Amino acid sequence: MLDTGSGFWSPLWWIAALGAAGLVVLIIRARGRSDYQKGTEQVKPFLSGQPEVEKQHVRASNVYWGFLEALKGYYRPLVQSHTGLINDYTTWFLGVLVLVGVLILGMGG
Amino acid sequence: MNGLFQHAPVLPVVIPLLAAFATPLVAKLGKTVRRTWVTTALVGTFAAVCLLLWRVLDSGIQVYVLGGKSSTLVLPSGMAFPVRILFEVDAISAFMAFSGSLVAVAVGLYSIHFLRESSALEKHDVLLLLLVAGMLGMELTGDAFNFFVFLEVASVASFALIAYQRKRPESIEAAFKYMVISTVGALFVLLAVGFLYGRYDALNFAALASWMELTTADKLALVLLVASLAMKSGAVPMHMWVPDAYGEAPASVTALLVSVSQASLYGLFRVVFTLYGLEMNVLVVGWIIIALGLLSMFVGVTMALRQHDIKRLMAYHAVSQSGYMFLGLGVGLAVLGDPVAFGAYGMKAMEGGIFHIINHAMYKGLLFLTAGAIFLRTGTEDLNEMGGLGHKMTFTTVCFIIGAAAISGLPPFNGFASKLLIYESVYLFNPILAIIAMVVSILTLASFVKVFQSAFLGPKPEGPQPIREVPVFMQVGMGVLAVVVVLFGLFPGAVLDYLVHPAAQALVNRAGYIVQVIGGGM
């Protein structure tokens, strides 16, 4: 049991609850259609007329394409700032050092 | 046995250090003897840390004097403050050492097979042991200059290990870049130590803390230490060396580099909580750390989302996860001067941040080891060229799922427990910060779903070499960390009570640290 300050978290209770929910699912499944036949055409998903392609795999670079495209404005400067140049790495470090200095020395740190 | 107890604080550094220098000699006896030697040294180091942890939790701070007539003589006759190097091990030091040495054991087991085909294994083992000695030295020492020395020991070992695959120009470049930025940071740490020594004629943390007056020189030292150690921890925008270094080092080394970076994080928290504490403006410094944490969380995860090199992706997540630690401890620091707020949520925020440190070391170490397993079998780190590994690499797949679920904060794994503590406590401080932290967790999950889909799902891989599971020692290395991730997730209350809470108390109890080390006689 983990006391979070505002409540608690018990993983063992959570697993027990998950097990109980799983049991309910199994009971509902057992009361399902009796004409279900495994391994026949009826179990195949309907793919809107798309012929079944067994060896299809979406490449990593294509995953979340829409997300990255929608946030192009955010990503462009972010990626540009990751130049890979050690001069820039050092400049960022010195910039933060100066900023931290201004805040601590200037604001009575 | 009493002798063992007496020397417990120094054993975790002595064992890997001596083992490192003896390794070239032992290597003359053959590969098997060398590997057994290195693994035994790492297990011995972990055992010594466990003994030390038990001593600290049982009897309080353990102090060890190096180079004196007696290892317990902190203040020799006539001395007003410690003049020798002291190891000062409180609960947070022992906690960090426990986390790092446990990862080192897993890495040691994993490395038995992982790097079997490569050359210069003897040098690798020497450097690995030096890296462990440097990391543990940073966490156990109570001397500011000695901290710098161990920082350098760990850094130099890191440079060489990052460049280990020396036929790859990218590895040499990554090591060079890390060497430059790390050396600049270490020089600033040395400069800060110089400021403090010039002001107080002392280097001992407890002595410095008891005399701290926050003069301009002290403030300058604080600025240098905060910025340098945050950079060494990989905080945004000083994080750019992280994907280079983590991406190019062998996966087993990268798993340990995560813990080495955390030693710098520990140094930062030791400085702000113990060395300066309420003498400084905790609200300003706390918000600086919170800001670094927010930037690290968000920039790290969004950069990770667009990566297709598995190790660079995981490296950006390491940056992102460090943000949670900055956030939790930053909130704790910001309200340190307000007893009501600190009691209401500050302590819980600190506990969440500290709990996340050990959780991150475990699951990120595990994830990097799975990345190494994938590389060993596919010969690539490019996710675009992977797929279907789950068909043949079942154990690695299960380990990856455990690590990915933990880093994404899914119940019942360990990452969920620490993140929950951070969310709830930080929400009471500022709801916006907690919401950002939750959004970052969702993006983390999205990113690891992408990795899982790309590497493990899909049709069976077809290539000249048939894909099969990795050798047994690599599985054992991953298995150790996976078991810890699951156990810490299932029993978070026990971890909090026995490890995390004492560590948080140790950070907060500045006066107790000073009194227990030097008896309050300053």
What does this molecule look like?
The complex is a heterodimer of chains A (109) and B (522). By secondary structure, chain A is mostly helical. Chain A has helices at residues 11-30, 65-70, 72-81, 86-106; strands at residues 2-3, 8-9. Chain A is flat and about 75 Å long. The two termini of chain A are 39 Å apart. The model of chain A has no long low-confidence stretch (mean pLDDT 89). At the A-B interface, strand 1, helix 1, helix 3 and helix 4 of A face helix 7, helix 9, helix 12, helix 14 and helix 16 of B.
In short:
The complex is a heterodimer of chains A (109) and B (522). By secondary structure, chain A is mainly α.
Please supply descriptive tags for the structure shown above.
heterodimer, A: 109 residues, mainly alpha, 52% helix, flat, B: 522 residues, two-stranded antiparallel ribbon, 2 strands, 75% helix
Global Rg of chain A: 28 Å
Query: β content of chain A, as a range?
Result: under 5%
Structural class of chain B: mainly alpha
Main sheet attributes: strand count, strand direction, barrel closure of chain B: 2 strands, antiparallel
Distance between the terminal alpha carbons of chain A, to the nearest Å?
A: 39 Å
Output the strand order for the largest sheet of chain A.
1-2
Radius of gyration of chain B: 22 Å
* Major β-sheet annotation of chain A: 2 strands, antiparallel
Termini Cα gap of chain B: 33 Å
The helix content of chain A is: 40-55%
Q: How would you sum up the global shape of chain B?
A: globular
Poorly predicted tracts of residues of chain B: none
Compile the SSE list and pairings:
The complex is a heterodimer of chains A (109) and B (522).
Chain A: E1 2-3, E2 8-9, H1 11-30, H2 65-70, H3 72-81, H4 86-106
Antiparallel strand pairs in A: 1-2
Chain B: H1 2-6, H2 11-26, H3 31-59, E1 62-66, E2 85-89, H4 91-114, H5 121-140, H6 144-162, H7 169-200, H8 205-211, H9 216-232, H10 241-248, H11 251-276, H12 282-305, H13 310-334, H14 339-378, H15 394-407, H16 414-429, H17 431-455, H18 472-490, H19 492-508, H20 510-518
Antiparallel strand pairs in B: 1-2
Helix pairs in contact in B: 2-3, 2-5, 3-4, 3-5, 4-5, 4-11, 4-14, 4-18, 4-19, 5-6, 5-11, 6-7, 6-11, 7-9, 7-10, 8-20, 9-11, 10-11, 10-13, 11-13, 11-14, 12-13, 12-17, 13-14, 13-16, 13-17, 14-15, 14-16, 14-18, 14-19, 15-17, 15-18, 16-17, 16-18
